[in-house]
DUF4974 domain-containing protein (Echinicola soli), 334 residues
Amino acid sequence: MKYKDFDTEDFLQDEFFITWVMKPGEETNHFWKKWLEKYPEKRRVVDKASAIIRSIGYEDERVLSDDLYMEMYENIIQKEETEEVKRGKVFTWDFWKNLAAILFLAGCFYLGYEAINTKPPKKAIETEMVKRNNPAGQKSTITLPDGSTVHLNAGSALEFPDRFSDSLRLVKLTGEAFFDVIKDKDRPFVIISGDNRVKVLGTTFNVKQEKDFSVALVTGSVEVADDKGNKVFLKPKEMMVKEANGMIFKKEFDPLEVIGWKDKYLVFKNDSFQEVRRKLEAWYGVEVHNTITLPKDWSYSGVYYKETLGNVMEGISIASSFQYTIENKTVTIQ
């Protein structure tokens, strides 16, 4: 795939791009300057990817810089001398030998410079993006290329490369998922969800992106950041919530309520009718229609483990004194 077709996630997986951001040099600066002049519409994507890379903090790699070439060149120049004799200048054998070395190094430097700036080095390994989508009523467990496990909730999607790079493990989440990440201190694990980023090394936690964004940490530690520069660190049993209006706060959480879904627990805790309907539709892949008027303060609490839709509706209807019907994929409250 050409750079002009890259999005943010593609740039975050590209080693040539990462090297430029973390260790810019004359050659890479020249290439990306020319490339952005040709594709100015990609600047916003490039700037976003660059900001994410700097916030993640890749390990610096030792590379041979252009300064070394210039230092070698200058040392040879300083050694060059001309000998003065009574009847004029005499060019010695040492002079010609040094001049040949200078020309050889200059030629190598020029050819190397041109080769690098003509086109970037080819990627050693081509990667393909893998997409997993769960419709309403369906959950799945996914094993990532590094062995980490993801429990993907209903109505959610996960995107990741078929192999991670040597410096980063990056995935993109829409909806909700529980992650069990294998520890790798040399390769941070980063989840992009909306304009939020969750960075970990090895831990277990839940990420949910709906109207609000939340991260609930079970073990280990995580760093949560967004495009506005906000950054929050979590400890086990802490949960960060970012509301739709941008307000951010931390709190403790009930593991059964927040992550019980991955173990097939359907939990209602003082939920409004809108929240009950949302959970039923996502869990069972149905549509819920209400034909009666419920009290404004109506709420419901209950815990169900591997229960059928009929049994759950029976429990809710008894507690709330209403009738219901189930026909195909439609639940009608009456």
User: Anything to note?
Assistant: The first strand starts at residue 83 and ends at 85. The CA atoms of residues 152 and 290 lie 29 Å apart.
